[in-house]
Amino acid sequence: LLGIPVFKGDSKRWETLVKKNAFQSCNFSSIIIPNGMTEIGENVFRMCSSLSTIIIPPSVTKIGKGAFYGCAFTELPEMGSVTTIEDQAFMNCGKIAELTIPENILSLGYNSFTSCGTTSLRIVSSTTAMSNHVFSSCGNLSDIHLPEGMTKIESGTFSACKSLSEIDLPHSLLSIGDYAFDETSLTTIVIPNKVQIIRSKAFSRCYNLKTIYLGESVDSIFESAFSSCKGLSAIYSLNLIPPGLNYRQYNNNYVNQNGYGSFDTQHYSTVDVYVPKGSLEAYKNDPYWKKFDL
Question: For every one of its 294 residues, what pLDDT tens digit does the chain have, with 9 covering 90 and above?
């Protein structure tokens, strides 16, 4: 392959070299990794802004921290044996248009795909464990497929994905982390029936959000979960028991916080709340829900 760097010889020696950031900010466009390597080390190809093609052998199982930060890939490289992608590994890869996380990937590190140019995301397996802010600030991301079996959306996962106007959450979901969808363009959100917890600022600064459907198991909505949702006009709560509002976590305990609303004060007079038949009195007697015009 003329013009493509090929690193041959003792793969163990090469593995030692790459742990010293040997190729950071180099200007080659393609590379072949030698078979026998098990890991692409930390920051090895960081800011190789011309690197668009790479062949990763089946011996590689881990992509290290910042390994491909700022590279020029237009799609995720083929890496059929990789199980772990560490923090910031593909951060700022602004040319990746479509992103599929294959089922062999078991772990995604913090900010691993932050600020990528992707418009479409598909996560194949519910066994893929994600750290915080994995896809945050992907400003073009508008199409997301999450697998059934997923139980949690971690902190900041899709925060500042400003092109995201709709999403179907998996029915298996149990909790939504803080800042998970902060500063997105969602217009309607349907919280699945198994979700129990919506954490702080999960949907804050969703300025286009008009309608919220709270599933029948939602019992804890943390402080500022829907703060600064200026267009909010309707909440449909399916739980017969009013979900607890204004929660904050102290150690392992959840407590109500006066002055830290799950919703903004203005929402009490501008948002219509719809509750299940037969539960109106329970909502009217709740110290927080009664503030709405029920």
Answer: 334 455 544 555 555 445 657 788 888 899 888 888 888 989 999 999 999 999 999 999 999 999 999 999 999 999 989 999 999 999 999 999 999 999 999 999 999 999 999 999 999 999 899 999 999 999 999 999 999 999 999 999 999 999 999 999 999 999 999 999 999 999 999 999 999 999 999 999 999 999 999 999 999 999 999 999 999 999 999 999 999 998 665 555 555 555 568 999 999 999 999 999 999 999 999 989 999 988
DSSP state of 33: P
Rounded-to-integer distance, Cα 74 and Cα 53, Å: 9
* Residue 112 neighbours by CB under 8 Å, 6+ apart: 85, 86, 87, 88, 89, 90, 91, 131, 134
pTM (two decimals): 0.91
Q: How long a stretch of residues is the chain?
A: 294
For 284, phi and psi rounded to 5 degrees?
-65, -25
Q: Which residues pair with 253 in a beta bridge?
A: 250
State whether residue 289 is helix, strand or coil.
Answer: helix
At 233, list the tokens: 């006009």
In terms of DSSP H, where are the helices of the chain?
Answer: 11-18, 267-270, 280-284
